[in-house]
Records
---
Amino acid sequence: MDKLRISVLGDGGWGTTLAILLSRKNYPVTLWGAFDNYTKLMAKSRRNPRFLTGIRIPREIEITSDLKKAVSNKDIIVLAIPSQYTRGILKRIKGNFGNNTIFLSVTKGIEIKSSKRISEIVRAQLGPVKLAVLSGPTIAGEVAKGIPTTCVVASTNKEIRRLLQRVFSTERFRVYTNSDVIGVELGGSLKNVIAIACGVSDGLGFGTNTKAAILARGLAEISRLGKAMGANPETFSGISGLGDLVTTCISKQSRNRFVGEQIGKGNSLKSISKHMQMVAEGVPTAKAAYALSKKYKVDMPITKEVYGLLY
């Protein structure tokens, strides 16, 4: 297992953090970013000033913008690409990886045009590859600093989830396993929409009572949609459901909560997006979640209101 070669596609805060975590465990790691000038800057400075300030990137990590090189001869490929760009990147890597390569999605979002989860997009583009998803209350900066964190890796294949549990677990990063891929993906994606609602509440100057109400009712509607889509309702009361929801709705570092807060203060989505370096996945996911609620005939009042505010 020590010789597993791992590639992380996506040099945002979370992709960079996972590359660092794996490198600290002595795995040979490649980190891929889409922009050549920026990957060269990272390779030279061993920093990611745009997405992960104050954290040094180990010299052992290979940083590249060459996608074919990044995925060739890898045992595990971690997908840390924003949801709306995932399909395009998968099209580009087709045929450049081995039959036994494991794909691990760590992206928390749903594609707007298809309303598909990331694992569904992977299957549609790459066929029956080995696949898992990782989600949970994992603020990148905290994980990079070694602050105790938990997450969940989900796969329908028991061997794959157990292998990934061993690969990613550290003394301060505890990985649980689950077979409910749908539930884990939906929990990680839909909580971003509820976090925008909590941010709006903050921006309007409302209190803890209001936020608790949005949290509790938000979890109820996430669970309703999840059940309709075939997820195990119990998943939503666990780490990748309630745990992630609480973190994203409360943390000052949450991008989605921040977007909501700015909207609550009267700013437009266009002006907010212009000043943000990182993607707030809840913005596109609100549109996809609203479409899913109509498709599955599930009542999701908070999601409906967030969709109305944004679009």
---
Amino acid sequence: MDETGSSTKHLKRILGFGDLMGVAFGYIIGAGIMTLLGSAIAMTGRSVPFAFLIAAVITIFQFLPTIVTAGTVRLRGGNYTMVAMLCGDKVAGAYTIIYMFQSMSLAMFALSFGSYCCSLFGVSDPLLEKVVGFVPMTLLYITNLFGVDKFAKIQRVIVTVLLTALGLFAAFGVGHIQPDYFAPESFLTGGLLGLFQAAGMLTFAIGGGAGVVNLSAEAKNPTRDIPLVAIISTLVVAVVYALVGFVGAGVLPVEEVAGQNLTVVASVVMPRPVYLFFVVFGVGLALVSPMNAQFASAPKPVMQMCDDGWLPAGLARVSAHGSPFIIQTFLYGMGAIALFAGLSVSTLVNLSIVAGGAMSILMNLGVMRLPKVCPAEWEGSKFKLPRPLLVTICVVAACATAFNVYVNASNLSLPLILLNVVVVTSSFVYGAVRSKHAHMQISYEGV
């Protein structure tokens, strides 16, 4: 396989700190802030800025073990390599199936984009929404076929526009904040429970920074850059989101913005030209950015899955541009099928909440084995910790993940919970059966 150039070993290591930061911001700044802020206000009222900050703390605790691992070795297969090296081959096989289910989130972003664009023009046509969403998904798929360097350039432009749009929202809105912002009747409206429920939900808006781990194979200095990027991007975006939430909840009465998106407040505080920029480029690109990031990073774990025998080896072929074009085409096809099959956004979001959470818990606990699995790299790691502290971090991260899964799963219907259980069960059955034919490779290395 190595001779054909289809291994993660042959990916070009060209992504620097700035490139990875653009990816992280692109992962985090997306549909979440535009669509979830109103729901969070409905849960906790004008205390929503604090919910964003709590969500950031929960998120960082959840991925701290990943940061420790990514700061110790290059993970050529991203999160999949973490699972394989720390949890064993059968769990790696199970992760393969769960990961493929999660890749259908491309359709969620596409459908959200199509629905948003149609609503701007007052059109209600489910088929047209799918077609409109299919367009950017196709354009980004084609662009990413030309290599990760092209992706990085596009992502930097997208992130710059997104941050500008959110900054304008906060700047124009802060002068309209009502003086009774902290009045008891509109602050902590759901009590402490409502605050933490909102924070749990907002981890969807804050999470994503650790997704840069899946680009470890193409990073110039992953053990230095990836931990810094994941933490800095999460904290910076959390502060930006808190400011946005301050404006979003403080300009109009809570009952008028609860359950609504940002455009309701934007139309009040922004001049018409700025408002049009916000709704066209700000909201629109927020729905496009995660698609672009996913096309670039999602194929890398799949390449390693092919290397290890969980999927057909031929899928991992790389083009002259260094792009795993077959895997990208496969993911694009899965997204298109899910898009036109009529699955709703909520179904796509909830499809693997329990499944993905269960795997994250195992990953976090598995990091306790890191010093044993790669002792030489651990000795030289900037993140080398005393054993009790490492165990504590892993247990706290697993508990934070379990709490987040519980909060979000509590809102699922029984059929969706059962679907997640079926996905988990089927995945582990696949891992147990297929492990007899897998040929696991070491896909981590010191830097």
